[in-house]
Amino acid sequence: MGRPKTDLDHNILGSPIPGKLIRPIQPMPDFVRAALDERGLMAFYEARPAYQRNDYLMWINNAKRKDTRRKRLGQMLEELETGGIYMKMKWNG
User: Can you say how many angstroms the Cα of residue 37 is from the centroid of all Cα atoms in its chain?
Assistant: First the structure.
């Protein structure tokens, strides 16, 4: 039978099938959508790979405190505006 599969066994998307996420798809909260629209960053958000969009939303959605959600949203917006950064890491997308 072998050991169960983990994310380490898969490609960067976390799935053995390119373009398919294995983590649950995260809903986009209204306040995130509003912030992206207000700052004109929706196109930059949509241009990111699916795993990045989902990870950003999961990271924001999983914050327990409102101020933590706002701080994480601010980081995402700044990274989208700046480009070349994903979760404080260099990204060549």
Answer: 17
Cα distance between residue 8 and residue 74, in whole Å: 29
Tokens encoding 67: 């101020």
For 85, counting Cβ atoms within 10 Å of its Cβ (0-12 exposed, 13-18 middle, 19+ buried), the class is middle
pLDDT in tens, 32-85: 999 999 999 999 999 999 989 999 999 999 999 999 999 999 999 999 999 999
To which residue do tokens 């914050």 refer? 63
Alpha helices by DSSP H, the chain: 30-38, 42-47, 50-61, 66-82
The DSSP bridge pattern shows strands 85-86 and 89-90 to be: antiparallel
How far from each other are the two terminal CA atoms of the chain, in whole angstroms?
A: 38
Secondary structure of residue 86 in the 3-state scheme: strand
